[in-house]
Amino acid sequence: MPILIPRGLPAYRTLKNENIFVMHERRASRQDIRPLRIAIVNLMPTKQVTETQLARMLANTPLQVQLFLLRMESHFSTHVDESHMKTFYTTYEEIKSQKFDGMIITGAPVEFYDFEDVDYWDELSVLMDYCKKNVFSTLHVCWGAQAGLYHHYGINKYELPSKLFGVFPHQVLDNRSEFMRGFDDVFYVPHSRHTQIRKEDIVAQKDLKILAESEQAGPHIICTKNKRMLFIQGHMEYDRDTLRLEYERDLGKGLPIDVPANYFKNDDPEQGVEVRWKGHANLFFANWLNYVYQETYYDLERLSELEWDTPDEEVEEE
């Protein structure tokens, strides 16, 4: 099954060229099924890159996914053409009466700011509250995960002594979780950040559980007890060249930057990139979509019936 995205979105052509099954609205209207409504709150400055990376992950399952792109109305994006934003993006005010099967809140290059000092923090806070009643499952990524943990649980982030940069091994802590189904005991994930959340702060919250962690990178996949929110430190969606381009950019600016760990063959940039994270990245997003498909209501209006503290197993089966 395909991912349903607007035909003019640059990601459409990119994924078609990669032989990934994408579908536009006219063709989807002939299929008598309800696609999963998945919204991406894209906080990254490189909007089109992030769109494509996440669309690629969401397209790799037998489920039909209808993609929606959201932006912060209180923030002006300077790294993308305004016509692209007007054509493909919407705002919270325009969707606040709608409901979604899933939502992804991306990372953002604002980790040195206090959360309340980010210019769109108030708007994002309203959106995160909205998710509890109007989105079945919300996936928070990197800074988005730190923002979500701070907003919902008061868990703060801490600056690292040096940038965490590279592809690090992670261990599965709960192999019975639906989200970790099929994972090897050890898997690799790219990271690129200057801040961290502390494991002891997560463990202190009885509503949170760590599903996977890394000795070097710390807690990686965290979920709520009712499984309706996940917080992901790291970037499973990254492309082959994402860290290389970041490394070369910082070198070109004369910034202090180490060679990304476990990324180039033999840690030598001259030997090229060795991808070791894509299999588990696809598996995680497939597991998430499958969970949402199995547990969400066919009639999304019924989401408002769910109490936030309702355990997952008590949700009525359709």
How do the strands and helices of this protein lay out in sequence?
Layout: E1 3-4, H1 10-17, E2 22-23, H2 25-28, E3 36-41, H3 47-58, E4 65-70, H4 82-88, E5 89-90, H5 92-95, E6 100-105, H6 121-134, E7 135-141, H7 143-153, E8 158-172, E9 186-196, H8 199-203, E10 208-214, E11 218-224, E12 229-232, H9 242-252, H10 278-295
Parallel strand pairs: 1-2, 1-4, 3-4, 3-6, 4-5, 6-7, 7-12
Antiparallel strand pairs: 8-9, 8-10, 10-11, 11-12
Quote the beta fraction.
Answer: 15-25%
Span of the ends, CA to CA: 22 Å
Oligomer: single chain
CATH fold category name of the largest domain? Rossmann fold
What is the rounded Rg? Answer: 19 Å
Q: Fraction of residues in helices?
A: 25-40%
What CATH architecture of the largest domain do you see? 3-Layer(aba) Sandwich
- SSE arrangement, N to C: EHEHEHEHEHEHEHEEHEEEHH
CATH superfamily of the largest domain: Class I glutamine amidotransferase (GATase) domain
- Bulk shape: globular
Give the number of DSSP strands: 12
Number of helices: 10
Query: Can you identify the CATH class of the largest domain?
Result: Alpha Beta
Could you list the spans in which at least 5 consecutive residues all have pLDDT below 50?
27-32, 314-318
Biggest beta-sheet profile: 12 strands, mixed
